[in-house]
Design a protein that fits this description.
Length: 229
């Protein structure tokens, strides 16, 4: 390899491997207390100092995870359980963006699903389900959330560990449940009743794809996980 290519290659590797303070790009997974998923998604890692293997089970933080299944098959219930498990021991938050506008009382439902008290519910969960909620609203919320995390001090970070077994300080996790991606609408779609069905479907796919692309770079850097139905 020529010296120029070698230098450029080393620079690219350095950029890729650089860990943003508080980020989770090289951190261990979070057990979600569902054995089937914990072990199916997990890996075996090696402790850097001792050389001993350890199980890295659960789900990675800072990613987009999608639940797919038939209507009424329990997708949202499962994601609420997963979200609660991912934040419970790390002083994190769960946000439910209920684009389906479920008629079920979310407070009672979540308390029953997760077995949490009123106090824990109030501290941990935020529900958005107003009628004019849009993809733009959720995007702005996420950028406001990032600004809030940037202002956190060292004492606000939580301890976790890397894939090499080292302890590291990370942002408290935020898990956002999108229920559902198919029901998420842009402001343009909500305000334009004249679009035909075929055009609506195409516009939804385009706008929702653009939304996910626009926020993807924030996820690992600020410990935001998307669980989408």
């Amino acid at each position: 390899m020529g010296i120029l290519k070698k230098t450029i290659g080393d620079q690219k590797k350095a950029i890729v491997k650089k860990q943003k303070p508080g980020g989770v790009s090289e951190t261990a997974f979070v057990p979600i207390r569902v054995d089937l998923l914990d072990y199916h998604c997990g890996t075996v890692c090696t402790d850097l100092e001792s050389g001993d293997p350890f199980y890295n089970i659960g789900l990675p933080m800072g990613k987009i995870h999608m639940a797919v299944g038939h209507s009424q098959s329990g997708k949202t219930t499962l994601l609420i359980q997963i979200a609660n498990a991912m934040v419970a021991d790390l002083n994190g938050d769960v946000v439910l963006a209920d684009f389906e506008r479920s008629s079920t009382d979310p407070r009672s439902r979540i308390k029953n699903i997760c077995g949490v008290t009123d106090e824990i519910y109030d501290e941990r969960f935020t529900i958005f389900n107003h009628e004019d909620m849009t993809a733009e609203f959720l995007k702005k919320f996420m950028f406001d959330l990032v600004e809030a995390k940037k202002n956190l001090g060292p004492a606000d970070l939580v301890e976790w560990y890397t894939l090499e077994g080292k302890t590291v300080q990370i942002y408290p996790p935020t898990v956002i449940i999108i229920d559902s991606v198919a029901a998420m609408r842009s402001k343009e779609l909500l305000e334009n009743p004249d679009l035909d069905n075929n055009m609506v479907a195409a516009q939804i796919a385009k706008s929702n794809g653009a939304f996910l692309t626009s926020i993807e770079h924030l996820l690992e850097a600020y410990n935001i996980t998307i669980l989408a139905v």
